[in-house]
Specification:
The protein is mainly β. Helix content is 1%, strand content 42%. The protein starts with 14 loop residues before the first helix and ends with a strand.
């Protein structure tokens, strides 16, 4: 079962991972890649700011090389076996007869899932998602056209929490023969590669559609995850239209692009998934099992989740206490007089504003959560965390969980004392019932802080002269 990430855990419990992700993991919603882009809905959203590169050529990214033999075979369509790769990817078979136990997935039909790449061939098959057909180009491998193969953005891939870790979530619809003779229902997934693509038509800028061609892709397209091995599957599910395989790609070592959290409309980096099924020993592949494909299709999908935007304010304040010195001098200081004589002395009062001491640093603000989508979004947790401080108490207008309908908004307040005026990052983490996580952050900066001044001005009283002077706001002399 997917575990909802508790409030604050994204920064406190998983601080080291978020640092590796550059403070990134979800920004605001995006439209799908095949639709016209909208104006950005929110600002200062991150997953936790996922700010490694912009929308031009990609920087050189670390590649997660993964491997292993992953066995999720079962003869029971009520079962949901699960296994992991060497680098921690989670692969699960979703038994058609027991989808509640297998993660409450439901059918993978239209509306619940978006199919983005379908491949079909006998023996082995390979391919990747592209809009090549939309511009009159041929597919490179065994891709199937229509609405089943098209470009998607990185922001179209849901990010979910599983066991306190963050993953991209993808599903596969496997359609092997259900004949009893071996190996008809069996199939192997042997290659699973994720690429980031910004230059679709060699213009240096993203376009829509994205007619990606020429695998293996060259710079500025970067491969960020690569599984080579054997994922062994026994397709006991009947027919097509269901999510048979759930593949969770760990994000701990993947640098997600700036503005590309789930459904962030500002994302301009494309997500390309290349997969190869059914490699066999006699075909010279690198697989160790002979599980070829039938002449049926395999299809990758993403599940459609509710989403929210998260914006926040970070208002800083502190107290500045001024120190003063006061000195009274008399000229002349003494008189040598005979009886009956008198003299007059002049006195001077010097005021010096010698400096100040700051204290009482604090930050407070409002977290605004808005549902811009068409699905109800149930908010189960809202957390706030400040770097170097930790978790901060959050109080929302309503008790959680709160269901936000389309265009509904929830506001939550937070405040925290700070130890000094260092610049920090304040991160709000919002978790939905589905397990998806959304983050908004703001800089804690004391450059425009609200300052409470103590002794900024003073008055002077002279008890001998019964005088009252002031107020004084700076060095002065009386």
């Amino acid at each position: 079962m997917t575990r909802t990430l508790p409030p604050g855990a994204l920064e406190s419990e998983l601080a080291s991972r978020l640092d590796a992700l550059n403070g990134r993991l979800m920004r605001s919603p995006s439209q799908q890649a095949r639709r016209p882009r909208r104006a950005r809905l929110v600002t200062a959203l991150t997953v936790g700011a996922l700010a490694l590169f912009g929308t031009g050529a990609l920087s050189v990214l670390a590649l997660v090389n993964d491997q292993g033999v992953v066995d999720i075979q079962t003869d029971d369509k009520n079962a949901c076996p699960i296994d992991t790769t060497e680098e921690g990817a989670i692969v699960q078979f979703v038994g058609q007869g027991n989808q509640t136990e297998c993660g409450e997935l439901g059918a993978a039909g239209s509306g619940a899932f978006d199919s983005f790449v379908r491949v079909q061939a006998n023996g082995s098959e390979q391919g990747y998602n592209t809009d090549a057909k939309d511009v009159g180009l041929n597919f490179q491998f065994n891709e199937v056209g229509g609405s089943f193969t098209h470009s998607i953005l990185v922001s179209d891939i849901p990010v979910v929490s599983e066991g306190g870790e963050l993953y991209w979530e993808l599903y596969a619809d496997v359609n092997e023969s259900n004949a009893n003779n071996f190996p008809s229902p069996h199939i192997s997934l042997n290659d699973f590669e994720v690429w980031f693509v910004t230059d679709c038509v060699n213009t240096g800028t993203p376009t829509d559609p994205c007619p990606i061609t020429g695998y293996p892709f060259s710079v500025p397209n970067e491969k960020v995850y690569d599984f080579h091995g054997d994922i062994l599957i026994n397709d006991v599910n009947a027919g097509s239209g269901d999510a048979d395989i759930r593949y969770l790609v760990p994000l701990a070592d993947i640098d997600v692009p700036d503005d590309c959290g789930y459904k962030d409309p500002a994302c301009e980096v494309f997500f390309v998934l290349y997969t190869q099924w059914g490699l066999t020993e006699n075909q010279g592949g690198d697989a160790t099992h002979d599980y070829p494909t039938d002449a049926t299709f395999e299809e990758w999908k993403v599940r459609q989740y509710p989403f929210v935007t998260v914006t926040k304010t970070a208002d800083t304040s502190f107290t500045r206490t001024w120190e003063w010195t006061i000195d009274k001098s008399v000229t002349p200081a003494t008189w040598d007089l005979f009886t009956g004589d008198s003299g007059t002395s002049d006195y001077t009062i010097d005021l010096d504003k010698t400096g100040s001491t700051d204290s009482g640093w604090a930050v407070s603000g409002t977290i605004t959560i808005t549902n811009p989508g068409d699905l109800d979004a149930e908010v189960t947790d809202v957390a706030d965390e400040i770097t170097g401080v930790g978790a901060v108490t959050v109080e929302c207008d309503e008790d959680l969980p709160v269901t936000l309908g389309p265009d509904d908004t929830l506001e939550c307040d937070y405040s925290s004392a700070l130890t000094d005026d260092s610049t920090r990052t304040n991160t709000a983490t919002v978790t939905l019932e589905a397990g998806t996580v959304f983050i908004g952050d703001a800089e804690v900066n004391f450059g425009d802080a609200d300052v409470t001044e103590v002794n900024a001005s003073v008055n002077v009283s002279d008890t001998y002269n019964d005088g009252q002077f002031g107020p004084f706001t700076d060095d002065d002399q009386i």
